[in-house]
From TrEMBL:
Residues 39-61 are annotated as: Disordered. One of its GO terms (molecular function) is heat shock protein binding. Residues 46-61 have a biased composition (Pro residues). InterPro entries: HSP_DnaJ_Cys-rich_dom, SSUH2_homolog. This is Protein SSUH2 homolog. CDD domains: DnaJ_zf.
């Protein structure tokens, strides 16, 4: 019979699984145009080449003269208020049904939105299990990052592509497992067995009965490696060889920034982020011209500032493909109503007729038993 502590003394406890090994620099070649490309960390975003032909100056777009839309009716205001109150189990809907609307005040709230659609490219040395691909390193000159043709998504749609750069692929022995395809199992430290979890290595159970889990051996086969003591190498997936290559990451991104004209309705600007408004103005060009002639000068100033900031910021390491600016009128109606001698307010806003109630006057406390 095994000593109760024999299993623990002969075998060290499991150790944490090792993290992925960083490939040595010797695995990667020197490719002209990719000298700063690193393994895993990339080489940073690559500045796009200058355009072959000078771009045309943006043209100012015509702006509408009428910036107003009618406010909602009293029937719509009451209907939305009742629907809102009905959505809360602790709200008595009497204020919504019986409250007397005394005033409805419309506020013209404008949201300016600038979108700059960009394409960015970055490179990094990458590896994958070798599966018979052609190793074409140096068979021809590798194209530069911005010379590789890529089909992008529709305008203003975020998307990402990873492309194997042609003529940069080589076959190399796996650095993690020394080209064996296997690694010691970290659960059992390569022994193939572990201390029996039922008898804790003693081979006996309570009342000195034989342990049937391990057949009195005190140890059982490791479930992670099925008693082999080794597992498939996670880096090469048992292939023993790796394909090294330069990966080109192409990222299309819609960079969006909003400016909302301040209004004195009392409704917080943050509430407007989840609603839409009526589009009054929309203009898209390769490079935009700021909006001028808007009734509120702060919006024109914001348009000028944001366009200059976007063009300076995103042209450094990205290629600007298109810009788009829109102006929406987001309807806000402040409704004042009287209920039980008190004066209260609520707001209806956006095309969706969302409701915001700062202080509903008839609530109750309830609990679920």
């Amino acid at each position: 019979m095994l000593n109760p502590h024999e299993g623990q003394a002969l075998y060290a406890p499991p150790v944490p699984a090792p993290g992925p090994m960083v490939p040595p620099a010797s695995m990667f070649g020197n490719v002209p145009g990719y000298e700063d490309t690193l393994a895993g960390g990339g080489g940073g975003y690559l500045p796009p080449p200058l355009p072959l032909h000078p771009t045309q100056d943006p043209e100012p777009a015509p702006v509408p003269q009428d910036w107003n839309i009618p406010s909602i009716t009293e029937d719509v205001a009451r209907e939305r208020f009742i629907l809102y109150a009905s959505g809360y189990c602790c709200y008595n809907n009497a204020p919504a049904k019986d409250g007397v609307i005394t005033n409805m005040q419309a506020f013209n709230t404008y949201r300016y939105r600038l979108e700059t659609f960009t394409e960015s490219r970055s490179t990094e040395w990458a590896t994958k299990p070798y599966e018979g691909e052609a190793a074409d390193f140096y068979t021809q000159t590798a194209p530069r990052p911005w010379e590789i043709p890529v089909t992008g998504p529709s305008l203003f749609q975020n998307h990402e592509e990873n492309i194997k750069v042609p003529y940069t692929s080589s076959k190399k022995p796996c650095h993690t497992c020394s080209a064996s395809g296997k690694m010691p199992c970290h659960e059992c430290n390569g022994s193939g067995t572990k201390v029996c979890w039922v008898c804790n290595g003693s081979g006996r159970r309570e009342e000195d009965r034989p342990c049937s889990q391990c057949n009195q051996r005190g140890r059982e086969n490791c479930s992670k490696c099925h008693g082999n003591g080794t597992k498939e190498c996670e880096t090469c997936k048992g292939k023993q060889q790796l394909l090294t290559y330069i990966n080109l990451k192409v990222e299309w991104k819609d960079n969006v920034e909003d400016y909302v004209v301040e209004q004195n309705s009392g409704l917080e600007v943050d509430n407007l982020s989840d609603v839409t408004g009526k589009t009054l103005f929309k203009n898209a060009q390769y490079m935009l011209y700021p909006v001028y002639g808007f009734p509120d000068p702060s919006l024109s100033q914001a348009s000028d500032r944001l366009i200059r900031e976007h063009q300076a910021k995103y042209s450094q390491n990205s290629r600007i493909l298109q810009q788009q600016q829109t102006i929406e009128l987001i309807p806000i109606t402040k409704v004042t109503y009287k209920w039980k001698g008190g004066i209260h307010v609520y707001y209806i806003y956006g095309n969706e007729h969302q409701v915001k109630v700062p202080d509903y006057p008839a609530t109750c406390c309830c609990s679920i038993m």
